[in-house]
Write a structure and sequence with these properties.
The structure holds two protein chains of two kinds. Chain A is mostly helical. Chain A contains eleven helices and no strands.
Chain lengths: 255, 248
C-alpha cells in the first residue's frame, strides 16, 4: 500500500466530520484528535515492532511479555477496585492463564520460536486474558451484591467463604465466558475474524487461514476460561473478612 | 444462655450504644423498636455477621470471639426477614447446614424437621422456587433447626409476608419455642405483634435500650414519656444514630 492510498483512506474521516458538522454533534474536534492519536500510536507501534521483532534473545522476549502482563493486570485491576488486591489477583490470573495457553500452543507448533510469532500471539493471549479477568471481576462484584442475602444466609448457617460464594462464583464465570462462547458460535457466519482477513489479504490460502483462525479461537477460549476461573476463585475469597463477614463493599451501608 | 455486655457499634454514626442484656435457656426476648433503631445490627453482631466495636457476647459462658466462627453460627441460628434459599429442593435446603459440615441428614430427619414447621413430606422433593414466600420462610426455619442451635435469632421473620402468612409464622415461632425451649431473640418493629407474643421485651430506640420488661407492663408504664410516645407512634428516631440493615 502506498502513502497516497493511505491518505485517500484517511479522507474517509472527512465523512465523519461532515456528519458531525451537519447534525451539530460537536464531535469534529474529538474525531480529528482521535484519528491523529490512532495514527501516531500505530506509527510508534510500527517502529517499536520493527525493533522488537528483531530480538532473538528469549529472556528479553519473556520480559516484554511480562511487562505486557503487568500493564494488562493494572488495567484489569481497576475494574475490580472494590476487591482487595484486585491488581495482584488479575496479574496472577492473566499470568497463569497466558503461560499455560502459550505453552500448549508453543508445544503444538502453532507459535513458532521467533519474535514475529511470540510477540503478536503472546500479546493476543494476554489481551484476551485481560478481558476475561476484567469481566470476571466486574461480574463477581455484581453477583456478590445481587446474591448478598443468600450469601449471608449461608454464612449464618455455618458456611465458609468458598461455600457461601459458590453460586455467585458460578454465575460470574458463566457470565464472563458468554462473549467468548457467543463469538465462537458466530465466527465465520457473521464476521470474518481479523487474523483470517489479514492472512487472506497477505496472500495466504483461505484454508490455511482457517487453520490459523481456529488455533486462535481455541487459544482465546482456553485463555479466557483459565483466567476466569483463577481470577474469580481468588477474588471471591478476598471479598470476605478473616471473620467470614461479607465485606461492606458488597453490602448496603450499615452506617 | 446468651449474655450481651456493653455492646457498641459505630459506622460513620453510632448504631448500637452500650447494650447489655441476658436471655436464659427457654426464654424468649422480643427486641422492639422503630425502623432504624439498630435491631437487625444487634442480631448481626451476636453471630458476628457484623463486627462489633466494643463489648462482649457470651454464649453459655464463653465469649463468642473465642469460639470457632463456623461453630458459633451453627449454635446461633438466624432467620432473616425474607428467605434466601438455594435454588434446589426443599430437602436439600433443609439439610444444607449439616451438609456444609459434610454431615448427612436422613430422610426421616428432614421429614421430622418439616413437620416441626408445619409442612408435610410431600414438600421434600419440591423445588423451592415453586413455594410461596410463607412456605419458603417455613423451610428457612427448618433449615436453621437442622443445625440444632442453642439460640435462635429471628430478624423480623414476618415482615416480608402478607398478614395471614405472618400470623401463621408467629404461631409457628410460639410452637417451636414451647416445644424446643431454645433461647430466642425476636426482633420486630410491629407493636401489635410484640403484644401478641407477650414476652419479656427490650425496647430499642436510636441504638440504645429505652426500657425492658414485660410488654404489657411497658405499655402501661405512664411514667416514661419517651416510651409512651413510642407506643403511640409519635417517636421520631434520631437521624444521626441507630440505622440498621435495611434489606434483610
Amino acid at each position: 500500500m502506498t502513502i497516497e492510498s493511505l491518505l485517500i483512506a484517511y479522507g474517509l474521516i472527512a465523512i465523519a466530520l461532515f456528519i458531525s458538522w451537519h447534525n451539530r454533534l460537536t464531535l469534529e474536534k474529538e474525531v480529528v484528535v482521535a484519528s491523529l492519536r490512532a495514527t501516531v500510536q500505530l506509527v510508534i507501534m510500527g517502529f517499536l515492532l520493527e525493533m522488537i521483532l528483531k530480538i532473538d534473545n528469549y529472556v528479553y522476549l519473556a520480559l516484554i511479555l511480562l511487562a505486557m502482563t503487568a500493564i494488562a493486570a493494572a488495567i484489569s485491576g481497576k475494574r475490580g477496585e472494590q476487591i482487595p488486591h484486585a491488581t495482584g489477583i488479575a496479574f496472577t490470573g492473566i499470568l497463569i492463564g497466558s503461560v499455560i495457553t502459550f505453552a500448549v500452543l508453543a508445544g503444538a507448533g502453532v507459535i513458532g520460536p521467533e519474535a514475529k510469532y511470540i510477540i503478536p500471539l503472546g500479546g493476543m493471549i494476554i489481551g484476551n486474558s485481560m478481558n476475561a479477568s476484567s469481566l470476571s471481576m466486574n461480574r463477581l462484584i455484581g453477583e456478590l451484591g445481587h446474591q448478598r442475602k443468600r450469601i449471608e444466609t449461608l454464612l449464618a448457617l455455618g458456611a465458609n467463604a468458598r461455600q457461601a460464594s459458590e453460586w455467585a462464583v458460578r454465575q460470574s464465570v458463566r457470565s464472563a465466558l458468554i462473549p467468548v462462547i457467543d463469538s465462537m458460535k458466530i465466527i465465520g457466519l457473521v464476521h470474518l475474524p481479523g487474523i483470517m482477513t489479514g492472512f487472506i489479504i497477505a496472500g495466504g490460502s483461505p484454508l490455511e487461514a482457517v487453520k490459523y483462525q481456529l488455533a486462535i479461537v481455541f487459544m482465546i477460549a482456553g485463555t479466557a476460561s483459565l483466567t476466569c476461573m483463577i481470577v474469580t476463585l481468588l477474588a471471591a475469597r478476598r471479598c470476605f473478612s478473616s471473620e467470614l463477614q461479607l465485606l461492606d463493599a458488597f453490602r448496603p451501608s450499615t452506617a | 444462655m446468651l449474655r450481651v455486655s456493653h455492646l457498641s457499634l459505630t459506622k460513620d454514626k453510632p448504631i448500637l450504644k452500650d447494650l447489655s442484656f441476658e436471655v436464659q435457656p427457654g426464654e424468649m426476648l422480643t427486641v422492639l423498636g422503630p425502623s432504624g433503631a439498630g435491631k437487625s445490627s444487634l442480631l448481626r453482631c451476636l453471630n458476628r455477621l457484623n463486627p462489633a466495636d466494643s463489648g462482649e457476647v457470651f454464649l453459655n459462658g464463653t465469649e463468642v470471639r473465642s469460639l470457632d466462627i463456623l461453630d458459633l453460627r451453627r449454635r446461633m441460628g438466624m432467620v432473616f426477614q425474607s428467605p434466601a434459599l438455594i435454588p434446589d429442593t426443599v430437602q436439600a435446603n433443609v439439610a444444607l447446614g449439616p451438609f456444609l459440615r459434610h454431615e448427612t441428614v436422613s430422610d426421616n430427619a428432614v421429614q421430622e424437621l418439616l413437620k416441626q414447621v408445619g409442612l408435610n413430606s410431600d414438600f421434600m422433593a419440591r423445588q423451592v422456587e415453586t413455594l410461596s414466600v410463607g412456605e419458603q420462610q417455613r423451610v428457612a426455619f427448618a433449615q436453621v433447626l437442622a443445625n440444632k442451635p442453642d439460640v435462635l435469632l429471628l430478624d423480623e421473620p414476618t415482615s416480608a409476608l402478607d398478614p395471614t402468612a405472618a400470623l401463621t409464622i408467629e404461631n409457628l415461632i410460639k410452637d417451636i419455642h414451647s416445644r424446643l425451649h431454645t433461647a430466642t431473640v425476636l426482633v420486630t418493629h410491629d407493636i401489635p405483634q410484640a403484644l401478641r407474643f407477650n414476652t419479656d421485651t427490650l425496647v430499642m430506640v436510636d441504638g440504645a435500650v429505652l426500657a425492658r420488661g414485660n410488654i404489657q407492663d411497658l405499655v402501661n408504664n405512664t411514667a416514661n414519656a419517651t416510651l409512651q410516645n413510642f407506643f403511640k407512634g409519635e417517636l421520631t428516631p434520631n437521624k444521626d444514630t441507630g440505622d440498621e440493615e435495611s434489606e434483610f
